[in-house]
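Work Package 3 (structural annotation) set out to generate three-dimensional models for the target panel prioritized at the project kickoff. During this period the team completed the workflow that converts sequence records into discrete structure tokens, so that structures can be stored uniformly alongside our sequence database. As a representative example, we reproduce one entry of 117 residues exactly as it appears in the project archive.
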Amino acid sequence: MAKSLFNPNSLTASFLRLNEQTPAPSGGVASRTLLQTGGGKSLVFSFDAGQELSEHTNPNHAILCGLTGTVEVTAGADVHQLGPGDMLHLPPKLPHRVKAAEAASFQLQLLAPDPAL
């Protein structure tokens, strides 16, 4: 299990600045786990301009929240421009890819689907 920046067992509040956690790497993509629990995971991703994550799927709900720059998210047949303050929900198993036209970052929440549904 990746080490979380936040301690999931802490009884006190924790504070950090997301934009300072994962600077855009030169020519690459970086991610950092903020918190991981049994029901989900929170990460921050940073992309250098022109970098991308190839098409993939995820068994969880994914909620992306733009922090800096702009990324293009292709989800199924739809294309979304995700900028600062924008949010996008991807349902489980939807094929998607992410490409950064410029240096960019976003927070990603992965939430386990409800087994009762």
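The chain has a mean pLDDT of 90.
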